[in-house]
Amino acid sequence: RLIIPTVFIAIVTIGSWLAYQHLTVREPRPKTAYTLIDELRSSDDKTSEAITNELAEMGESAVGPLCESLGDRKLYSRGYHVAALAKIGRPAVAPLYKKMKEGNLMERRSAVDALGRIPGEDIDKMLLEALNNDVTDVQSNAIWALGTRGAKIAVADLIAKLKSHDADIRRSAAKALGEIGAPEAITPLVE
User: 115: closest CA among 133, 98, 132, 135?
Assistant: First the structure.
C-alpha cells in the first residue's frame, strides 16, 4: 500500500521536473567579444579566421575588449586581434592611438601594427609619432607600416632614421624608402 503512493509521487515529481526543463529551454546566449577572444586563444587557423571575422562584424562593441587583449602574451592570437581591429577600421583608431602612446611594449607594438592596416592620412601622422618611440620594436613596426602604406609624408623622417645607431632601424628605413619610391631618398640611400 505504501509503495504505490511513493512510486506515484516519484513519477509525478520526475514528470514535473522534465516538463519544467522542456518549457525552460533557453536559446544559447549570444557570444560576446570577451568569449570570442577566449576562443581565439585556443583555436586553430581556420577557426581563428572565422572568429576574427565575427569580432570584426561586431564592430565598435568589440574594440574595447580587443584593445584590452593587445597585451596578450600569445603572439599567435595577438595577430588575430590586430587583424580584427584593422577590419573594424575607423572606430578602432582612437583606442589604438591611446594604446600606442600609453600601453605596455606589446600593446604599443600591436597598436602600431593595427593602425598600419587602417587607411588614412591621419593614421600616417600617428605612425610618424611612433617613429620617436623609445622602443626599437615600436619604431620598426612604424617604419614597416609607413613603407607598406607608401606614406610620402614620412620620407624626411625615414631619411633621418638612416643615421640611427641601430642597424635594424637603418635597414628598415632603407627598405621603407625603397617601397615609397621617393626620388629625394636616392642620395641618402647611396651614402
Answer: 98
What are the CA-CA distances from residue 103 to residues 22, 77, 91, 119 (Å)? 49, 18, 18, 22
- 187 grid coordinates: 642620395
Are 113 and 95 a contacting pair, CB within 8 Å?
no
Q: Is the pTM here over 0.90, yes or no?
A: no
**What's 73's DSSP letter?**
S
Q: What is the pLDDT of residue 7?
A: 53
For the chain, the first-to-last Cα distance in angstroms comes to 107
**Contact (CB, 8 A) for 158 and 185:** yes
Of the candidates 64, 75, 126, the residue with the CA atom closest to the CA atom of residue 105: 75
CA distance 13 to 149: 69
Amino acid at position 76, single letter = Y
Regions in the chain scoring below 50 on pLDDT: 1
Q: Which residues contact 138 (CB under 8 A, 6 or more apart)?
A: 100, 105, 108, 109, 112, 130
